Amino acid sequence: xxxxxxxxxxxxxxxxxxxxxxxxxxxxxxxxxxxxxxxxxxxxxxxxxxxxxxxxxxxxxxxxxxxxxxxxxxxxxxxxxxxxxxxxxxxxxxxxxxxxxxxxxxxxxxxxxxxxxxxxxxxxx
Length: 125
What we know:
This protein is α+β, with helices and mostly antiparallel strands. The protein has helices at about 40-50, 65-80, 105-115, and strands at about 80-85, 85, 95, 120-125.
């Protein structure tokens, strides 16, 4: 039950990111949504739509923090050659953050992590 979503970074997907499984966090249906759209593009769509929890069946974790989740995904990719067996080269190492579209607490968190140079892949737009 601890499968990583390569789109949003959710670490507790009940199934691997393949075979039409759906991430309960971002709603990506693998091998359907990502057939012609990259994980980076799907990530950007999820981010622009407010990084909301997708599943109605699986409850949102009480400590759900999508900004932290994305930063952990970036840090994980830097430390590993693959995510769920998919080569790191297939992932984008930059998360674009539109500070006008996120809440102040998430904005402060992302800015603080970026300032500490832990999120070197973060760019503001």
